[in-house]
Amino acid sequence: MSDLLERLRGRGWRLTSQRRVVAEVLDGDHVHLTADEVHARAVRRLPGISRATVYNALGELVALGEVVEVTTDGRAKRYDPNAHRPHQHLVCSGCGVIRDVHPHGDPLAVLPTEERFGFTVAAVEITYRGQCPACA
Amino acid sequence: MSDLLERLRGRGWRLTSQRRVVAEVLDGDHVHLTADEVHARAVRRLPGISRATVYNALGELVALGEVVEVTTDGRAKRYDPNAHRPHQHLVCSGCGVIRDVHPHGDPLAVLPTEERFGFTVAAVEITYRGQCPACA
DNA sequence: ATCCTACGATGGACCCAATCCAAGTCAAGA
DNA sequence: TCTTGACTTGGATTGGGTCCATCGTAGGAT
Q: Does the predicted model carry a pTM greater than 0.85?
């Protein structure tokens, strides 16, 4: 975590108590929190921190590549702090729980050139859907 | 299209002029429209059709498996009438244009058993991201 | 240690997509 | 043709997110 804060400072990120708390919340649990959940946890550590500030900090962390946004349900975006380890997501259609998963091979490789329509393809996001053991 | 309407009637779908128009709009162009875009086109054919009705009809078509919802940008959901031909999506990070694509092989097969955590995996959604020729 | 100032935080208004609801309408079976 | 339960309507409401004017402060300069 201090690695993260150091990295951010090195990039000219002004280190405020609010930003520190948001970064700590994301680092604390290896989960997929919504912005409101991040805000709720941040408030516990720093009462009075505003929702707008949390949104700002999350947006900056995403822009800096430290956190990735995932939208698995068409509702609130979720923030995944595991940005430096490439992975995909497995989502339970029943309860919505999300697990990080690692498919075999390079997911980009299975898209043939003639199916790329001249695009320069840079990234791929995969969502596997099914029922978790508890919901099945 | 009349196939679709017949199929829906066969399933007890009460065929109203509004539902007919929504189905026709989706069938007309092979595109990925937002609910508001569907509404705008539906109004041209049936002035006065309400947004709520369009949302209702779209939700029913999705539930019936005739249309799939796609959320590629965290904003408005898009409705893809090409539900019976399995495919994935290639999205331009610049202009947002969406193309249907067909990767090689079975996308489910690349997820090893030990990465499924006991889930019964039923479906997979893949979004490839890159720059289209015009934006590159 | 103190000052300066540009960058960050605040919260309340605002926006967009979507859903809800009570009242009115109508498809289609009898 | 009648009847009725399913469908439509539009206006209010919700949920998630953004905007903005004002206030506060991190951290470099002195």
A: yes
